[in-house]
């Protein structure tokens, strides 16, 4: 039986991955009818479980699954690869291409021995492997990444988080990421793209993604309804989320897993639409742009056929109202609001 071709979409994080993954799985049946396979066995719509298998350390994803020991991890993944390979064999007669998508390949799979084990598994199960990765200018990426860290339980201020945004941090160093993946899979098997809506067909990430598949696809069979992605929080929202994380930890302190009280409080904040009307200036955006200029120039010299492609980020989203405040000065009022939310939640 002929093996499928694989498109391994590794991110990076904050490049529309949540939006793209939801859209792909919403169109799963239509894609399957056109020879493109998506898995049921490796978690969906973000195929994070496959990343978790090859990452050996017990990270925050493990804790979210209630995994706190090596023994629990071993039981959790018992039979996982065998079941996944059986799914692949069953899909091969009717599919020529498979898509595996998780931005955590970018952010979590870093150790050379872990990456080699992934490659060996993929080489054994697919005819070809193409690594697809989108890169977004780092100051824009940082702003969105901070929202994610606060959603996932961080209590750090935005200013403190920005101290980690440097070329020394692998997460943001695209040159190092590109070298690692191309060094292992081969430059000819890596498709590196710039995340810029203006560069995409009809300004649509989904159309750009489809254009990178190994065979042309008639996308008229697909639904292009707008699915909501992982939208960035405003500065006021992130201040509230941080306070919630301080009062109610993201991970349940009694044995792991997600804390439902944390989730309910954040849902209450997210329903306050007025908080989305205002944005604050992003500090240090130009400084961040300049800090990465040397490594980004090398990135485009080595891996792109065009010159430097990143544009400097604007400090506030188009159409937003810039709120000239230091959100830390709102701490007392926001903490009072969180206290009230907690009382309402506990009394309901």
Give short descriptive properties of this protein.
348 residues, alpha/beta, Rossmann fold, 5-stranded parallel sheet, two-stranded parallel ribbon
Q: What do we call the CATH topology of the largest domain? A: Rossmann fold
CATH class of the largest domain: Alpha Beta
| Strand arrangement in the largest pleated sheet | 2-3-1-4-5
Order of helices and strands: EHHEHHHHEHHEHHHEHHHEHHEH
Radius of gyration: 21 Å
On the 0 to 100 scale, the average pLDDT is 86
Short structural summary:
The chain has 348 residues and is of the alpha/beta class.
Describe the structure.
By secondary structure, this protein is an alpha/beta fold. Helix content is 47%, strand content 8%. The protein has two domains: 5-141 and 170-221, Rossmann fold (3-Layer(aba) Sandwich), CATH 3.40.50; 235-347, no CATH class. It has a five-stranded parallel beta sheet with strand order 2-3-1-4-5. Strands 6-7 form a two-stranded parallel ribbon. The protein is globular and about 60 Å long. It starts with a strand and ends with a helix.
């Amino acid at each position: 039986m002929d093996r499928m071709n694989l498109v391994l979409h590794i991110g990076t994080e904050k490049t529309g991955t949540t939006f793209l993954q939801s859209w792909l799985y919403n169109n799963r049946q239509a894609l399957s009818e056109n020879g493109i396979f998506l898995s049921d066995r490796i978690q969906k719509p973000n195929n994070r479980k496959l990343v978790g298998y090859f990452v050996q350390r017990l990270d925050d994803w493990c804790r979210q699954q209630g995994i706190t020991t090596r023994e629990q991890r071993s039981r959790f993944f018992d039979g996982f690869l065998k079941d996944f390979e059986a799914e692949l064999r069953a899909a091969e007669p009717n599919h020529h291409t498979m898509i595996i998508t998780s931005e955590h390949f970018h952010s979590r799979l870093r150790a050379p021995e872990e990456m080699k084990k992934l490659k060996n598994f993929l080489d054994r199960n697919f005819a070809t492997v193409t690594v697809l990765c989108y890169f977004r200018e780092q100051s824009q990426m940082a702003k969105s990444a901070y929202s994610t860290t606060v959603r996932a339980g961080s209590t750090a201020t935005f200013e403190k988080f920005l101290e980690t945004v440097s070329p020394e941090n692998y997460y943001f160093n695209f040159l190092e990421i590109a070298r690692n993946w191309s060094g292992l899979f081969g430059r000819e098997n890596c498709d590196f793209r710039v995340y810029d809506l203006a560069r995409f067909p009809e300004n649509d990430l989904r159309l750009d993604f489809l254009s990178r598949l190994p065979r042309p696809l008639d996308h008229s069979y697909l639904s292009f309804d707008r699915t909501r992605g992982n939208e960035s929080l405003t500065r006021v929202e992130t201040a509230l989320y941080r306070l919630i994380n301080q009062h109610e930890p993201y991970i349940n302190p009694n044995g792991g897993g997600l804390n439902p009280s944390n989730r309910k409080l954040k849902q209450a904040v997210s329903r306050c639409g007025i908080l989305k009307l205002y944005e604050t200036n992003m500090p240090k955006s130009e400084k961040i742009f300049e800090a990465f200029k040397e490594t980004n120039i090398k990135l485009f010299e080595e891996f792109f056929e065009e010159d430097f492609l990143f544009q400097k980020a604007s400090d506030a989203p188009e159409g937003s109202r810039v709120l000239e405040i230091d959100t830390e000065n709102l701490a007392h009022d926001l903490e009072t609001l969180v206290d009230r939310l907690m009382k309402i939640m506990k009394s309901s």
